[in-house]
Amino acid sequence: MRTPSGDLVAALDIGGTKIAGALVDSGGALLRTARRKTPAEGDAAAVMGAVSAVLDDLAGAPEWPGVRAVGIGSAGPVDASRGTVSPVNIPAWRGFPLADEVRRPAGGRPVVLVGDGVAMTAAEHWRGAARGRDNALCMVVSTGVGGGLVLGGRLHAGPTGNAGHIGHVSVDLDGDPCPCGGRGCVERIASGPNIARRALASGWRPGPDGDTTAAAVAASARAGDPLALASFDRAARALAAGIAATAALVEIQVAVVGGGVAGAGEVLFAPLRQRLREYAALSFTADVEVVPAVLGGDAGLVGAAAAAAERVGVWGGV
């Protein structure tokens, strides 16, 4: 294990509900943290104001002079080659030059931008469930489905920072239209809102509290409700098909699954492993493991720092 050095990376995790920041050391520890609510319905300047406030909090810490780079994991799509972001859940940011806007308050330090799924992947490979694996797919299954790849022992973000975005792989050629413009995407079937949508459409009804989220469907599934179980099985099939396709293309060893829907536990993982055995039938895909992510809510920050450290060479890479 690497002994933490004095060199730090500042990390930002930008989503539709919150903007989080941290100073991260070479052991993956969050030394200082800051947070603001995302003014998602505000104009571009208002959203950037929240980002700047988080950076100001971090810059006020005594450790700030030790920061060597800034890593950003953002809801996407992102375009790392241009340094721009167009998050679906932040309407005012379309082609927004986030890297340039962050570089100024960061004092000209190098800024590395990746999608939030790639950031989660970097975190799980560095300090989580994919640690020690040279080839991995890591996935976030929540209100959307995102992901990223590790190939040959290194994070593979791709030219725009979106590589491994499994949520928009089509697994049902005649499936429902997806907001991305495709059809039958993994996200359209396996995300939390779509698990709940399918359950309700099939006749599932919530309990007395009226909760219609995927978490409520998961609770019904644990209690044996066949309609809830069927909705999770459908999601598991979509995820399994996407994982199998990825394994056939790039020969991954493990698929790490995190995000809120993964909190359903074996309600999701049991059918997912079963369906993967059906879809991943080739000899070089059949042994792919499926494991839960372990870093939870810190993954975006840890991963943004790891992605920046690898790109810039802080700590000798991670």
TrEMBL record:
Gene3D superfamilies, alphabetized: 3.30.420.40
Residue ranges that the Swiss-Prot or TrEMBL entry lists as coiled coil: none
Pfam families, sorted: ROK
Family assignment from sequence similarity: Belongs to the ROK (NagC/XylR) family.
Protein name (database record): ROK family transcriptional regulator
